[in-house]
Design brief:
The structure holds 2 protein chains of 2 kinds. By secondary structure, chain A is mainly beta. Chain A has strands at about 5, 10-15, 20, 25, 30-40, 45-50, 60, 65-70, 75-80, 90-95, 105-110, 110-115. In chain A, the strands form 3 sheets. In chain A, strands 2, 5, 6, 10, 11 and 12 form a 6-stranded mixed β-sheet that branches. In chain A, strands 3-9-8-7 form a 4-stranded antiparallel β-sheet, with no helix packed on it. The termini of chain B are far apart. Helices cover about 0% and strands about 50% of the residues of chain B. Chain B is globular and about 40 Å long. Classes of the chains: A mainly beta, B mainly beta. Chains A and B meet through strand 5, strand 6, strand 10 and strand 11 of A and strand 4, strand 5, strand 9 and strand 10 of B.
């Protein structure tokens, strides 16, 4: 079974509008972390935002926020006030944490390509 | 801001040749990783490394792969005898203990096996 599912292969968004990127995950581990990374056309992977499974509040980092719905096992990324520079591939990832304190691998979803239109 | 540095940015090699991909993790990080991304596909975990030994490896990380931390700063991935299907972007990442143990990635090395 897929551990991380991103159902939107691609989407367009108008500049200055908000966009929501979907991510659902599957784990039986009670302790896990959820991450979003941005991959522009240049290829690097840029960390955007992190949500811990025990965090009570949704994570926010500037224009990025993570809509964490634990019961539904979803961790959607919301980008507010889209900019042309937001055009990129976005990956959701999960790290299961229970059996190690740190250093566990990330499991990635298939990604969503976002194109911001002027 | 500290960053993970990878060299070279692009490596072209002939099938059957050995390649070494180099990474300089962020200086106070203790955990190191290699991932790969075949063109158009998802990012896949290869190996994690801590305290001078492999912590975890995936099925992809077979005997043709090895990792090493030869000194206090470099972290290398060696592919002993490259195959066509090894062509991919290889990412190095590092993390430290702390909130989220966030993994920071380098810009990647694009490996092309001809």
């Amino acid at each position: 079974a897929q551990k991380i599912t991103q159902t939107q292969p691609g989407m367009f968004v108008q500049e200055k509008e908000a966009v929501t990127l979907d991510c659902t995950y599957d784990t039986s581990d009670p302790s896990y972390g959820l991450f979003w990374y941005k991959q522009p056309s240049s290829g690097e992977m840029i960390f955007l935002i992190y949500q811990g499974s025990y965090d009570q509040q949704n994570a926010t980092e500037g224009r990025y926020s993570l809509n964490f719905q634990k019961a539904r096992k979803s961790a959607n990324l919301v980008i507010s006030a889209s900019q042309l520079g937001d055009s990129a591939m976005y990956f959701c990832a999960m790290r299961e944490e229970s059996y190690k304190a740190a250093g566990n691998k990330l499991t990635f979803g298939g990604g969503t390509r976002v194109l911001v239109k002027p | 801001e500290p960053e993970v540095t990878q060299t070279p940015s692009h490596q072209v090699t002939q099938m059957g040749q050995e390649v070494i991909l180099r990474c300089v993790p962020i200086s106070n990080h203790l955990y190191f990783y290699w991932y790969r991304q075949i063109l158009g596909q998802k990012v896949e975990f290869l190996v994690s490394f801590y305290n001078n030994e492999i912590s975890e490896k995936s099925e992809i990380f077979d005997d043709q792969f090895s990792v090493e931390r030869p000194d206090g700063s470099n972290f290398t991935l060696k592919i002993r005898s490259t195959k066509l299907e090894d062509s991919a972007m290889y990412f190095c990442a590092s993390s430290r203990r702390g909130t989220g143990n966030i993994q920071y990635f380098g810009a990647g090395t694009r490996l092309s096996v001809l």
